[in-house]
Amino acid sequence: MEPASIQTVNHRTPSPAGDGAKAATARPERSSVVPPYWQRHERHVSRMSSYSTDGRPTPISLEDHTDQFSEQCRVLWAKSVTIDDYVVVSGTAPGLGAYVVWNCTVETLDGGPMMIRKRYSEFEDLHQKLVQTFPHAVSSMPQFPPKSVISRFRPRFLERRKQALSYFLNCILLNPEFAGSPVLKDFLFS
C-alpha cells in the first residue's frame, strides 16, 4: 500500500524588509510535499501490533456469525429480554423483610416467550457466578446496578434498576459465550 499524497499548508512569513501587513493577509499555499519528519519515522518491533513484519498494516478480518450453521449462532437461543414490571412484596413486619420481584419476558428465537420472576439477589448471584466462571470476560459484562438501602423501594430508583437489569440480561443472553453456559441456564430455569 503506497502512502497517499499529503497536502500541507505553508504560511508565508514576513519578509526581511518587514512587510508584516502583506504576510498577514496572504493566502496559504498548497503543496504536495510530505514533511521530512514523516519520512524518517520508523516503528520499533514492539510497537508493531497492527503491522505485519514487512511494515504494511495487517488486514482486519470480519466474521459473520448470523449464518444459522455458525457455531456461535447455534449457542444463541434468545432474541431479547424485557423486564415488564415489578412487584413489591411486603414483609411480615412493616418495613422488614420486604423485597421486589422482577417480571421478565425472554423472547426466544423459536418464537415462544418465556416468563421468569426473579429477585434482585438472584440477579446479583448470577452476576457473581458469571464473574467466577468467566474471569477473562469480565470486561464484556455490563456494569451491574448497585444496591441502595435508602431508596430501594422508591419508584424512580426501581425504574432505573429495571432498565439496568434489562440491559444486563440482554447483554448476557445475547453474548454467545454466556448464552450457552450452565450458570445462565440454572438462573433462568430454576
Question: Could you describe the 3D structure shown?
Answer:
The chain has 190 residues and is an alpha+beta fold. It has 2 domains: 1-61, no CATH class; 71-189, Phox-like domain (PX Domain, 2-Layer Sandwich), CATH 3.30.1520.10. Helices cover 32% and strands 18% of the residues. It is built from 7 helices and 5 strands. The chain has helices at 20-25, 36-40, 71-75, 120-133, 155-173, 176-179, 182-189; strands at 8-10, 29-31, 78-89, 99-108, 113-119. The strands form 2 sheets. It has a 3-stranded antiparallel beta sheet. The chain has a two-stranded antiparallel ribbon with strand order 1-2. Strand 4 and strand 5 (113-119) form a beta hairpin. It is elongated. The two termini are 56 Å apart. 11% of the residues are buried. Mean pLDDT is 75; it is low at 1-16, 19-24, 34-41 and 43-50. Residues 1-32 are annotated as: Disordered. Its main location: other.
